[in-house]
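Case study 2.
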Amino acid sequence: MGRKIDRDNFFYYTAQPIDQQIGKRAKKVTEVWKCWWCYRGKTRIMTVVAAYLYDGGSIPRIAWSILGITPSGPGDGGFLPHDVLFRAMGGKKPKAYKGCTVTNENGNAVCVPRVEADWVMYEGLRRGGIAKHRCRIAHAFVRTFGRWHWGGPMPVAE
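Prediction:
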């Protein structure tokens, strides 16, 4: 994409998750998906298992036109890791991962703070091609209103 990689802060993922609409609520099922990031000098590696169910971006419909971001599409690269981290409280609820892992470069499991989870969403949106100013607005919303969803329930198949 031509973006310069900062040695202390970077975000990279292997591929966009598949977009598989399931019913009206548009829940998604992923392929095996990996992303790497470095936040404030700490490297993280996230692996999302095949068939992990997530609900895309939890964006109110009224904000779709304001932000120009919908719950699925190019933003999935930011929404998926953010969703996994949020549901598991950054790793404090390991059963919420349902087989997904977050490790450091040595392979040790790590807990990620909410501020880092929100940064991961922002960087994933940027990597997905969303305009910087729209990503900043989405990041501000999630920083302001995300606390009520930290550690929330996982989406379930209908």
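Residues 10-146 form one domain.
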